[in-house]
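Let us begin with a simple case.
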Amino acid sequence: MEPVPGGVPTRLREAWREVGSALAGDRERPLPARITDAAAALAGAGRAVLYLREKGSWIAAAAVGDGASALPLPVPCPAVSGFSHGALWVRLEAEGELHGLLGLDALADDGAELAELLGSLLGPALGAHRFSRLVKEADFEVRTRLLELESLYDLGLSLAGQLDLPALADEVLFRSISLTDARKGSLVLLSESGSVLLSRHIGGELVSPRDVSRWELPEGEAAINNAASSVPTAGLRLASCEKCLAVAISVSGRRVGALAVADKESRDGGVLDFTPTDARLLSLFANQAAAAIETARLHKEAIEKERIERELELAAAIQREILPRALPRVAGVELAAANVPTRQVGGDYYDLFPLSGGRLGFLVADVSGKGVPAALLVSTVHSAVHLQIDEAKTIADLVARIDRHLRRFAATRKFLTLFFGLLEPDTGLFRYVSAGHNPALLARATGELVRLESTGVPVGMLPNASWREETVSVAPGDLLFVYTDGVTEAVNEKDEEFGLERLSEIVSGGAALPPRELCDQVLAAVADFARGMPQYDDQTLLLVRRT
């Protein structure tokens, strides 16, 4: 090769002109195609192929001549330029990095010099092209990520202001379908117990709500299944879809639901594969949705708690208005009473009725249930007793009248236990009816303790029920002790009940005390027994001693 002024070989200068002309030609054609054309022309090759390295693999980017694309890439990749399998393979390098492999049909005796020449001329051009493309791809990726973040930010704003859970679920599902260009979608939310809280579907039910709790979705990432028509998605077979993308919705490590979209639509109406980008977007959106859903759920719970608090306040007010504000003064008897309501507001009720002839009627009742319904029934019982007590011929007749009144006017279908006693202080005659109530205790001055058992079924439980009236004699100094089951059924930390036996011992041992002191002693004993445990039911006591 003849040297030329400046030390640049003549052939290299001519080759550079030829390559430069070829590369500067039809710029509509991709640079890899122009590089391949220039190499084939410079080498006089009948065919040429250019392989480019893309993300760890090789792809045939351009080919010249018949059958050029059939030139297979040597395995392993040549460490240096040279002949392999009848073709010349040139490593196109720049900045110490391999960017492409050029395969040429060329003469063996010209191979080394030609490979060096093409590598020197085309390697930098291909390297510049590849770096330029990587910069553009990186810029596109950055712009895409920014658009994704803007979209997710807008979605987050739209969800953050929504506190109605059903409306929020609709919004999440609609946004998910729009975000992924899907045709179908399903959203199922679970309660803290794992039961289905609500479900929403667009385009058909992809997954049965009852199956979501056992769905094997990975936490924090979406499951892509582009063969959903024949292969289960994360262990669960979905209905009527070709391709699916699903993600678990979790809050603080607790599964609160699942979101699935299906059949990503192309512009021509076909179905596209879901991509890792789709999965990433849906996962990020699911995180935002989870926070919004939890906020809406807590808001709903707060509203419900506030409603219950108002209901309890109303029920407590009803009870306070019905219970006697002061005990009557009746000759020949000493009285004491107490009512310790629970925070849940039960249905305990007591009342006293001074009657003609110095008689005293008294009532202790316990309505089934708690809250406003129980308090309303107590109010109905209160009204019924005051309306019917003067008309009734006997205590049994009074209880039957109360029963008929409840069946006619009570808004709730509840029942109550009831103890009604009528004492004649002058004679000591005591008549009573116990409608399914706890055994009342008669502590005699002699030390004997008598249990006054039930004489019929609870009021409001059975149609055409009847009650038996019993009679006992109450001597001076004898004490009648009537209570509700909130006393005997109070439990301690060992889940043991206070029980009738403990109550009987206290009443028997304190029978000689003033009724007020014995009442306080019983309540203190129950409170000490159940220390540290919540009170589940009202505790009501009524004590009557004949003097």
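The second case is a distinct protein. As before, the sequence precedes its structure tokens.
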Amino acid sequence: MVRILNFLFVALAGLSCFAVNHIAEKTRLADIALNATHHQIVLEQQSTKLLQAQWQTVADPQRIQQLAQAHLGLTDTPTVALASLELLPRRGDAAADNPIRAASMVTQSPAPTTVLHLTAARSGN
């Protein structure tokens, strides 16, 4: 009986060693994956900082204005301030540079092709 118990305890100790070794190997692989992920996070943070610095130079309003003037031919025209409502032209007054005084357009609506009839629904009670 003692030999059987000793054999079972030795077998249990061996299986425990295999289980601990298996868990240690999984832990080692998980640690490698975690280190690789941490390294990728650091690289992404560095590239994000670089992109933010580049964005600040690209989105500079003076740079955008220079590019618009150089490539699109846009100029910075000053805005006209309206001092009072009396400076606005009155309705019906013709502008000196616009010979058209009034324009109207008459359109005919197409005749309906289908007629819908609506009826009240009755309850089944």
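The chain has a mean pLDDT of 79. Helices lie at 2-58, 61-72.
Keep these points in mind for the review questions at the end of the chapter.
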